[in-house]
Write a structure and sequence with these properties.
It comes from Medicago truncatula. Helices cover 4% and strands 47% of the residues. It is mainly β. The radius of gyration is 19 Å and the shape is globular.
């Protein structure tokens, strides 16, 4: 069976796509230019094969570093002890979660010294030289937030989620990130209300800079598309069906 690839992040970056195949044995990453038909298979990381550990690649982000003229891939890696291994014979082996980054210039991966959990499984959205993920926790007491990674400085920035209206039924909310008119937008879908809301971020790292639109009502059987320059870019129905 041929491997099935998904496109990472926001799609084409300077005509180049980052294609990912999440297989059980190893993760295959390919950079591909559909116009020239050129492609490059990204080498595997040394962290993908850790003795006595199951390695899971949770998510990727792909973008261009304009400062160093380099294409980079960032991803989160989780290592867990294999269940069929005798724990006593191995001693104390802790689970590990970390980030690593690939540089096309060096053609290699390296580990980043950051311990930042990420609980949302979507691939990153690229904007202004930064890869962005929406982070949600299963713990209702934890705040949701935007996690952004600067491809040039290789540093993370967090932006706490916009405040919710306490009068709303927020028991079940579907959230997704997108680029809308050159700005980062959070689409919040409230199935219990039959409505959705758009929040635009003006400044990364500043919680108060979220601008929230009015609520938009909808019929759940319809396919709702937000458009930018005449192109459909977000399907609410697709998000709800996942």
């Amino acid at each position: 069976m041929e491997p099935k690839f998904v496109i990472s992040g926001s799609g084409s970056i300077n005509g180049i796509l980052c294609l990912i195949n999440y297989s059980q044995s190893n993760t295959i990453v390919v950079l591909w230019n559909p116009t020239t038909q050129e492609f490059k298979v990204i080498p595997t990381s040394s962290f993908e094969f850790v003795p006595h550990m199951d390695v899971d690649i949770l998510r990727h982000g792909f973008g261009y570093d304009c400062v160093t003229n380099d294409y980079k891939i960032i991803r989160q890696v989780v290592c867990c002890q294999k269940l069929d291994i005798d724990v006593l014979s191995l001693g104390n082996i802790d689970d590990d979660q970390f980030w690593e980054i690939y540089s096309l210039h060096s053609n290699s991966w390296r580990k980043l010294e950051y311990d930042i959990p990420l609980n949302h499984k979507d691939n990153g959205v690229l904007l202004d030289g930064m890869v962005h993920w929406w982070n949600e926790s299963d713990d209702v007491d934890d705040e949701a937030y935007l996690l952004s990674f600067d491809l040039s400085t290789e540093e993370f920035v967090t932006t706490v989620a916009p405040l919710e209206d306490g009068s709303l039924d927020l028991e079940f909310v579907l959230s997704d990130l997108m680029v809308l008119n050159g700005s980062l937008a959070l689409i919040s879908n409230y199935p219990n209300l039959g409505a959705f809301q758009i929040s635009i971020l003006a400044e990364f790292g500043v919680k108060e800079s979220w601008f929230k639109s009015s609520f938009f009502g909808l019929y759940l059987s319809l396919c709702i598309l937000l458009e930018q320059e005449g192109k459909g870019i977000y399907s609410l129905r697709k998000k709800m069906d996942n």
